[in-house]
Design brief:
Layout lengths: L2 E7 L8 E4 L4 E5 L7 H10 L19 E2 L2 E2 L2 E9 L11 E9 L4 E5 L2 E3 L1 H11 L8 E3 L5 H4 L2 H11 L3 H106 H16 L5 H61 L1 H9 L10 H14 L4 H65 L3 E7 L2 E7 L13 H19 L3 E5 L7 H13 L5 E5 L3 H5 L3 E7 L5 E5 L2 H5 L11
Parallel strand pairs: 3-14, 3-15, 10-13, 13-14
Antiparallel strand pairs: 1-2, 1-6, 4-5, 6-7, 7-8, 8-9, 11-12, 15-16
Amino acid sequence: MILVRADIQGFKSFAKRIHISFKPGITAVIGPNGSGKSNIAEAIRWVLGEQSTKALRAKERSDVLYAGEHGKATKAAVTLTFDNEEGRFPIHAAEITVTRSLTIQGESEYLVNNESVRLIDLTQMLAQSGIGTKSYTVISQGTVDRYLTATIQGRKELFDEATGIKSLQIKLGIANQKLEKTKQHAAQVRAIVDELAPRVTFLQRQINRYEQREQYEANFRIQQKLWYAHAWHNAAKELERLETEKSAHMTTIEHTRTKRIHVEQETGKTTRSILQDCKACLEVIIAGDIVDLVTIKRVHADIEKSLAPAKRVLDTSYEQEIRAEREDSAITAALEQLRNDLALLEQEILRECGSSALASITSQPPTEENIPTDQELRALSQKIASIGEKDPVVIKEYEEAKSRLQSLETQLSDIEITMDDILQSVQALHVQMKENFQTQFTRIQQSFTENFTKLFGGGKAEIVSVPDGVDIIIAPPKKRPRHVALLSGGEKTLTSLALIFAILDVQKPPFIVLDEVDAALDEANSKRFASLLSARSHTTQSIVISHNRETMSVADVLYGVTMHSDGTSHLYSVKLEDIANMPAETPRMQV
């Protein structure tokens, strides 16, 4: 994969649209100081997602928009076109365009093949392809020595980037963000569950009471039916007994009545003779015949004697008949009351238990089960009454709350499973990052030592991993090992370049942009730098912004940048034969 071209318009000093074509190998961009050539490197850095205004030599985001004699550009746009024949980009396309734009209103947009994408998606894609703001694609003079000036701890962060684990770090960052969001979501759901669960428990108790009421009601109906069956059959038996007793009393009444009539008849005959005597006696009295007292007493005694026994028999007959009639009346009244009670009982059974229960009770003999007492039935009835009637609102609320609680608990379980999966992914990423770091760090160590020797023409240098970070040990040729702070400017630059080339050897980015990284090198060191750059030109496309003749000499394509009086930068192609014929004493390219 190579960078095919760059289209820049409205970005910094490039007011008008410029088109730069790039070839494999080395492309050099030259021009005077202040001409705007470094703006090309910054445009490439910007479109790759750079968010630091400091890295773009700006104070505010809007500073990247052209501002000059022609006013301020309404929009800055940079498009990079890549050859994707090797499939380095995770997109099925032979050519990939990446565009970033910013309007004067502050509206920013990223496009990949003219389709809008999020910055994080673009950063992920670029990291997977080996380029991006945190990779070593664009290296400026101001950042070339940051490894040397950084602290031991700061170098660790830089080497995290250098070892090419940025894509894993992005994945880890996304995973941690997901984990944090998932934790927050879990906390929110758990809070709702904690609030809802007691309410569901309370409603569950009420529903349990309703279920208990149903059990009480079912038991009450069974016991009530047993009681009704027992009461009905007892009443029916009593009714049958009274009817039998009444029938027997009717016979008794008939018997006493017949006996009384017979006694009356017999008594009447005994009375066919006593009354005649009384009549004769009365006739004598009436006629005025004198009858002595003795005779009267005798007659009276005879009458009394004749009517003692007859009267007693008759009285007894009357008494027996009256007693039988009274008993019959009592039985009749009892029968009437019992029939009324039985009718009321049947109505109650019909009302409480229904017609089928009444038919079952009246048609079947009573069971031998234990018959409940009135007190037991009342106790059951009181339990049912104490629970109260079912409240449909409570039942509905319980069903809704329970359903929601179950849904939330299922959701919480899924969230916890997701959290476990994310945690496992995070742990796996940490392991992979550690392994990748160690592998790549070892390769950087080896390459750094080799590049240092080539650039310095000898000497020794190594990078070592220490508990607090990464340290660098430098020993230029014929010099003792020293701290990087004691190196000269040229030595620092060469050391930094050796380390950068070592990182590039490991990262193998598809292209690199070097912005005046050779500014501090003398002629001899410039030759070594150019030699290293040329040696890598077959595998890594290089875009070099430079004043250095040695660097220009190894370029395959040259572009010159000038600035017009109106403050706009313009791009020109430069003939290589013109550069080749320049006098040796000319230190800088003049365009």
